[in-house]
Amino acid sequence: MKKTIRIRYHSKEIEKLRYIDGKSDWIDLRSAENVSLKAGEHRLINLGISVQLPEGYEMITAPRSSTFRNYGLLQSNSIGVVDESYCGDNDILHMPVYATRDTEIHVNDRIGQFRIIEHQPVIEFEEVETLGNEDRGGFGSTGQK
Length: 145
Known about the structure:
The structure is a single chain. The chain is mainly beta. The chain has a domain at 26-118: Distorted Sandwich (Deoxyuridine 5'-Triphosphate Nucleotidohydrolase, Chain A). It contains one helix and ten strands. It has one helix spanning 67-71, and strands spanning 6-9, 27-30, 35-37, 42-52, 57-63, 73-75, 80-82, 92-99, 103-105, 110-118. The chain is globular and about 55 Å long.
């Protein structure tokens, strides 16, 4: 079922949001400003849009896989979560970054990406003495068995 995200663009220079045909269901986010950063600096990079998400959904933002290689940037909060209440005209999306080297970001550079997901259902916690399952092998064990 299609969902609608209402978008307010704050920059006429950035490309409109769109799927990259056949590549991914994540959607790229672009810088709406030119930014120069020195190694060790932190900054919120303006992404030039405000959004209204469908009711019951939230947005997960993350750097693109090439963001570190191309710009030496780490998203300083690892991933971002935008809930549906962040929907005012001036609730502009930003990407908090930390520069690991001197770098330049230009208007329209693709630095982030997002997808939307439904809110987690209401859960309850049941305390037990044992889970009753076989151990897998501990933290970091995937692919070792």
